[in-house]
Please model this.
Amino acid sequence: MTLVALLQAATGYTTTPNGLQHLTVPDSGWAWFIATVVKMLLTFTIYMVGVMMVIWAERRICAFIQDRRGPNRVGPHGLLQSVADGVKNIMKEETYPGEAYLPLFILAPVMSFIPALITWSVIPYGAPWDSKWGTIDTALAPMPIGFLFILAIGSLGVYGIVLAGWSSNNKYSLLGGLRSSAQMISYEIAMGMATIPVLILAGNVSLNTIVSRQAGWGLHWNVINVTVAFFVFMVAAFAETNRTPFDLPEAEAELVAGYHSEYSAMKFSMFFIAEYANMMTVSALMATLFFGGWDIPFTLWDNVAPHTLIKTLVTFAFFWVKILFFVFVFIWIRWTLPRFRYDQLMALGWKFMLPTSLVYVVLIATATWLLEYMGVHPASWQFAVAMLGLNVVAVGIIFGVIDRGRLISPAYSRLDKRHIDKLREARYGRARLTPATSEGGAD
Model:
């Protein structure tokens, strides 16, 4: 069997919205090899430069929120500040704690860094290009099980964090590693359950198929069809990337720097880069699963043949607009909300998000079956309108009836007004003061 035949068997076909099927590899083996090398170089370069610019953007946006100037001395508007920080970390001396277990201490940053880069390889970041050598897919490795690949590889990053905490032989690092593992277990389940409604509507785990099912005028974006799943997925994404308000594994006020307290120089930078790389990957995944991927709304120009290079470049740019929007949301939330208490973090994951995801999976499966039984095709506008109405009702019940701003709020206390009044009466009794006396200034 030739190389191209093996690749065709491994990757299969990509179905476009107009019903045509295209091979995801060029007809020539050399053309496929050159296209793969070019995509590898472009993906890695854009990804690493993107991480560098996101770090700069976070510092500038943070400064804007806090009424400061931010980095502004290295390069125009401080654009080269991340480059200067990288050079500084490369030239700094590596330190190794005397009591650390060095083999795992050195391996942990690598185990956290590599999965953050590998997961990006299966995401389609533009429309396929029908070149004269064959159809070239924009995903570096367009797997039929791309979504499952992301879940599997993305889960490996927590091993680096746990091993970093254990091998440092530091109590703060160990607590950070244990928190990260507990947090991952708590929210990985909710994240996986939140994607099941997407897979029900797409009927496939291929990211190309999920994008093609959302193509059109924007009515079939999954954020409309499965809105509650999007909210659950986004909250779980914050927890999976250890971003505020779920940054308990590296809480500076409690654990110094958490699992990377003992790391310095480039090993510390690898954890830092991995966090921002995961943030970009999750942003790309949210755009792919719920916002049509590279699809441009309110037009069919990008979905019909001929699939030219111009369409590939335009859809690539539009996909990055969606990614940067979610990156901005990550940054905005970090500098707006306070950190959860640890009991609140666990309660939110197990008592609220997981039951909500389970009930929602049953609801979407039932609604999809009923609509198809009634003759409403999933590609029709009637299906989109019906699912939109269902999600409006579901969101209203969850946030307006069940939650009412208490379950999800980090400031929410488990004590209700009756218990608080009882505690106040006990305090007044111990101090032998009346409530009136206390309010008068003796408290």
